[in-house]
Amino acid sequence: MYTVDAEHCLYLTKGRCGKSPACVDACPANAIDFTQSSTEIEIEVGTIIVATGYELLDPMEMPEYGYKYDEVITGLEFERLSVASGPTGGKILINGKEPKEVVFISCVGSRDRDGNAYCSRVCCMYIAKHAHLVRDKIPDAHVSVIYNDMRAYGKGFEEFYNRVMAEGVEYIRKELEEPVIITKDGEEGVVVRTRRSTGEEIAIEADLVVLATAIVPGRGTEELAKILKLTRSADGFFMEAHPKLRPLDSFTDGVYIAGCCQSPKDIPDSVAQAVGAAQKAAIPLMQGEVEIEPLVAEVYPELCTGCGSCEMVCPFGAITIDAVDNKANVNDVICKGCGSCNAICPSGAISINHFRDRQIYAQIEALSCLL
Question: Which of 215, 286, 224, 233 is nearest to 51 (CA)?
Fold first, then answer.
């Protein structure tokens, strides 16, 4: 499915396509309708699966990689260029010519201690696939891969990596901290400069450079996290309730996560996670009810002053201040019993069921008697 960039569409912005836009005339499925307008709809649901996907790092944020040059493209752009339904019919052409010197660069924006410290996982293998396509479509081309560490972790991945090397693809290892600088010294081609892991400086005159850019959280992730009360990890992706025991659950009951919105992953992992999330989401729908955790916060109205401290610190939005009696109220369904409200309440008006202060003090006293 294709989407329209409204800011660049000539029909929407300047009306230069005439009464009948070319895209409408060319679409065999009559799927384009410029008469549609944005509408808001309300749907009552029992569970939610968040599968908002990912975006790729904009290589313009890293000017040293020379993305401004015509000879430098991203891995996704190369995928489109090499596919049979692409703009060149599957032929790999740069500036109207077949490139004879092709360089692939891994970890562009990934594993960066000052930026995205995580590995994007899919880059190593799609670089191998793209290198194989170049060798297949342009047999006399020389293909180089500049990489930091090769991570062929999936089923059949190591075998495919060995096959690509046997086809003549040259893998050049560099240290992670070693920069890659791409410049244009002449009218044609670019020069890729870096240093091998052995310390040897290299300069490759390339006709085509393909950047394996990092996978980053999609736009709107922060806003969606606020709406659904979802927690995000340090890298900006949605955080699961437990990485091993509850990898599909979020901290909000009834909301599940699947795919690259949780972390970078390959297609088989995304499919498996999507199937699991769909099955977990179907369970409460079939049961018709959801079990509520007993460990929730409870307010003592006689002590509550309505200061709102608990409302501000609650990460799940489970506490509100009643406008009538100016007392805190806890939504038992949303509350997770994290204890943040109990810790910050200045008047001691809120505590956690089964973890009241007198119970904790009794445990401390019992332990002190044993010492």
Answer: 224
| 3-state SS assignment for residue 233 | coil
Give CA 208 to chain center in angstroms.
Answer: 27
- For 147, the token pair is 């990489």
pLDDT tens-digit map of 283-310? 999 988 777 778 899 999 999 999 999 9
Indicate the angle between helix axes 123-137 and 75-82, nearest 10 degrees.
30
Residue 192 pairs in a beta bridge with 182, 204
Q: Residues 79, 211: contact at Cβ < 8 Å?
A: no
Which residues touch 99 (CB under 8 Å, ≥6 apart)? 71, 92, 134, 138, 141, 206, 207, 208
Contact 346, 307 (CB under 8 A): yes
pTM over 0.85: no
**Hey, how many other C-beta atoms are within 10 angstroms of the C-beta on 88?**
14
Stretches in the chain below the pLDDT threshold 50: none
Tokens of 322: 């009643």
Reading the block at residue 222, the tokens are 């922060």
* pLDDT at residue 15 in the model: 66
CA 65: distance to chain centroid? Answer: 22
Residue the block writes with tokens 């060149």: 88
The CA radius of gyration of the chain, in Å to the nearest whole number, is 28
| Residue 195, H or E segment | strand 190-195
Percent of the chain as helix, strand, coil, to the nearest 5: 30, 20, 50
End-to-end CA distance of the chain: 68
Angle of helix 157-166 relative to helix 123-137, nearest 10 degrees, comes to: 40
Tokens 């020379």 label which residue?
66
- DSSP-assigned beta bridge partners for residue 205: 191
DSSP E strands, 26-150: 48-50, 54-56, 72-74, 101-108, 142-147
pLDDT at 28: 87
C-alpha 147/C-alpha 145 separation (Å) is: 6
In single-letter form, the type of residue at position 343 comes to A
Q: Which domains does the chain have, with CATH numbers?
A: 1-35 (no CATH), 45-291 (3.50.50.60), 297-370 (3.30.70.20)
